[in-house]
Fold this sequence. Notes:
By secondary structure, the chain is α/β, with parallel strands linked by helices. The protein has 2 domains: 149 residues, Lyase, Ornithine Decarboxylase, Chain A, domain 1 (Beta Barrel); 225 residues, Alanine racemase (TIM Barrel, Alpha-Beta Barrel). Helix content is 30%, strand content 24%. The strands form 2 sheets. Strands 1, 11, 12, 13, 14, 15, 16, 17 and 18 form a 9-stranded mixed β-sheet that branches. It has an 8-stranded parallel β-barrel with strand order 2-3-4-5-6-8-9-10, surrounded by 4 helices. Helix 2 packs across helix 9 and helix 4 runs parallel beside helix 5. The N and C termini lie far apart (49 Å). Bound molecules: ligand LLP. The site of ligand LLP has 22 residues, from helix 10 and helix 11. Ligand LLP binds next to helix 10 and helix 11.
Amino acid sequence: MIPAADLHTAAERFGTPLYVYDAAELNAALARVRAAFGDARVYYAMKANPNLSLLRRLAAAGVGAECVSPGEIARAEKVGLSGERLIVNGPAKSAHEYAAGARLGATFIVDRAEEVELLPPASRALVRVNPALEVSTHDHLATGAAGSKFGVTLAQVPAVLEALRVAGHTALGLHVHIGSAIRDAHDFTAAFGRLAGLRAQTGPLAVLDAGGGWGLGADLPGIAREARATAAAFGAELWVEPGRYLVAQAGTLLTRVVGTKRTGRNFVLVDAGMTELLRPMLYGAAHPVTPLWDGPATERWDLAGPACESGDLLARDVTLPTPVPGQLLAVGEAGAYGAAMSSNYLTRSRPAEALYEDGQWRLVRRRETPEDVWRAEEEARQ
Ligand code: LLP
């Protein structure tokens, strides 16, 4: 926990809206993952938060990366991740991703049978399995349902593994990722169970990649136990790909009160909104909100952002002491898919990001300027 006085300091020094990350919490989350998963290989799903400073810290701690775009592969390369420490994934990979992945010696996740012939020669590959399960999360975050676009069917798995071998690739094993922010550990038990059911047809495998998707409150030791047992059934090494779990709780979005408005509801207008943190609007996500001022909390408020969109609300029905312009609010659990999904809509500058360690602040992304936002347009005119 970053002390409130230090949050005030950061907001003064770097301005708001501001993402802040607590290094101690990052370390603690990784330690929890390692405690639960033992010697499993950890590949950070950098889509959760691709900040280079966070990537460098994780890389220095021995964590690899899972990448799903040319830009993410470039980030991995920039922080020195390649070979055994790099996974290239995605349902519609481009020629660029195959070439960059091959150059860096990455392992590819094969998402469809048709991909076998697109892989660079002699690739190392895992086959992504769609276990055809409904899971306990928002519809947009479920990736293992029968109708989802991800992975091959259980029935297709043996043929895809065989096709990889025939084509001269190394078929390392299987991959499964059933969705994100999954609350109920039993969903993982069910998914791993479906994979284990393939054992008689696949024979032993070198790798089982159990994906990520662990909700913040999920039973991590329970998920890990099941994942390890499934890997053992295949005689396989276990890999995991957490995103949210590693970075969400380390991150907080600091936003300042602009003013209030009492119409049909009580609105506290703040300087951050959908362009800084899209999750409440996109998934109805509830992030904890803490006021950084004192007073008796009497009324309930909706946090409304500066965008001209009715859905631009960061939170609803938060009980707060009466807000006054300039006061600070901390929006928690914002380290994953927060800054990563921020946008330049309305020509808003994406926020600054700062890292807190041993009582010190360090800027890890400066605030954008309008010039940054239109640079590609101006350069195209020259
Ligand atoms: N592996 C694969 C193949 C994935 O597709 C994902 C996330 C992960 C690992 C990491 O999942 P995590 O451990 O972070 O749940 N924007 C959404 C989350 C989308 C996740 C997409 N895939 C959100 O804000 O909740």
